[in-house]
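In this supplementary section we document a worked example of the pipeline. Step one takes a protein sequence of length 315 as its only input; no multiple sequence alignment statistics are reported here. Step two produces a three-dimensional model, which step three serialises into structure tokens for compact storage. The input and output of this example are shown verbatim.
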Amino acid sequence: MLIVLIVAGATWLTVHRNWTGPGPANHLTTVVVPEGATLAAAARELEKAGAVRSTTGFLRFARRFGSSAPIKAGEYEVAPRMSAKDILALLQSGHTVQRMITIPEGMPSIEVFERLAGERLLTGKLPIPPEGSVLPGTYSFQRGEPRKAVLKRMQDAMTQTLNRLWMTRKANSVVNSKLEALTLASIVEKETGVPEERPMVAGVYSNRLRAGMRLQADPTIIYPLTHGKPLGRRIKLSEVRAKNDYNTYSMTGLPVGPITNPGRDAIAAVLAPAQTDALYFVADGKGGHVFSSNLKDHNANVQRYYNLRKAAGMR
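The serialised model returned by step three reads:
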């Protein structure tokens, strides 16, 4: 009986030390399980990181006492002193570290490219995405994931969102295609930073398009010069008069394509613009805009805005 108790005690101690008891890691440890990796390959990574005492021991106890569920690829955080049993359950759960990258509304594609290219935990090269093809938002990614894969999720999200919103298009919308919707939405996105104004700005531009008026949107002058980045100075008269496929001061109708990546609300606004007779708007000096339906009132609003800037010591 004494021998049995000794053997049982030794067995319990072995199992406790190598399987159910505290592990050797003294601090939070990150382990990456590559796509297609076997349990043995994952065990080697765990041993290298100091999360388990030995590859052989982990595998022996995992196969004897652990679940037969497959492990899942990804980046995992192993808590200090986490047991081998809990580590196996973690790898089988797929509860990987969630890293995030954010694309703000109105970010042009050149800056989307730069943001993805600058994320050091992503891998591989990627092209500059077509303007308007990326849906702004926050996206999760995993360490070592290809940049192209993250970009594809952003573009798929735009395609799905645009398709869904297109079905809600109202009778007063002037856009006749999804490309036109993206193009007009990109202008609306650039023209106002006040979310509540988007339908009204969309209504003004819809009225101007319907009347055959030029849109005269400043951001369309800037886009061919900087590809959507800030100009950093005032627009020159020669640039206002420049003739190209984007400048809505020198052409009627919409530009040839989007001038940035519009968000969901800007797209929704051009598909259901506000019912208004306004044809003009100008900054109100408080972050928003004041709208008018005739040139006389608009000129008065413009003068009021210049007076506010002058009083504030601005040119």
